[in-house]
């Protein structure tokens, strides 16, 4: 049987971000996202139905979120669902949360908390290692230098 586990949510942070570091040195943070579903009730009035979603961010994504976001900040998150199970005092508990693969900061005048840097209203952050940080994958130099000649360009 095939399965597919993908979640996309957009909402506002329910609290300020507290960045932690694992014993292995990996930054991690747990955030809460409030997602509103606006609908009309039986009497025709608009009502907001709020869902609260727990999200875990790792690595550079967690660092960027803690640097630029605060309570009330809008955020877009893509990831997968994970069910945590634990037992306390003989009673079993479980909770469904999102493990984020990607995060996008949603800028604008109405958002709460710290602002993203100038030059754009949205910044996308992937939790995967960027290709420019992989050893041996450095960008080639441009401009004039002793080892760069224009006739070496194949087009």
Which descriptors would you attach to this protein?
155 residues, 1 helix, single chain, five-stranded mixed beta barrel, mainly beta, globular
What would you note in describing this structure?
This protein has 155 residues and is mainly β. It has 1 helix and 7 strands, in the order E-E-E-E-H-E-E-E. It has a 5-stranded mixed barrel with strand order 1-3-4-6-5. Strand 5 and strand 6 (91-106) form a beta hairpin. It is globular and about 55 Å long.
What's the topology here?
Blueprint: E1 7-13, E2 20-21, E3 27-40, E4 46-58, H1 59-68, E5 74-88, E6 91-106, E7 122-126
Parallel strand pairs: 4-6
Antiparallel strand pairs: 1-3, 1-5, 2-3, 3-4, 5-6, 6-7
Question: Which consecutive residue ranges, at least 5 long each, have pLDDT under 50?
Answer: 115-121, 128-148
Could you say which structural class the secondary elements and strand pairing correspond to?
Answer: mainly beta
Number of strands: 7
The N- and C-terminal alpha carbons lie at a distance of: 49 Å
Helicity range:
under 10%
C-alpha Rg, in Å? 21 Å
Summarize the structure.
The chain is mainly beta and 155 residues long.
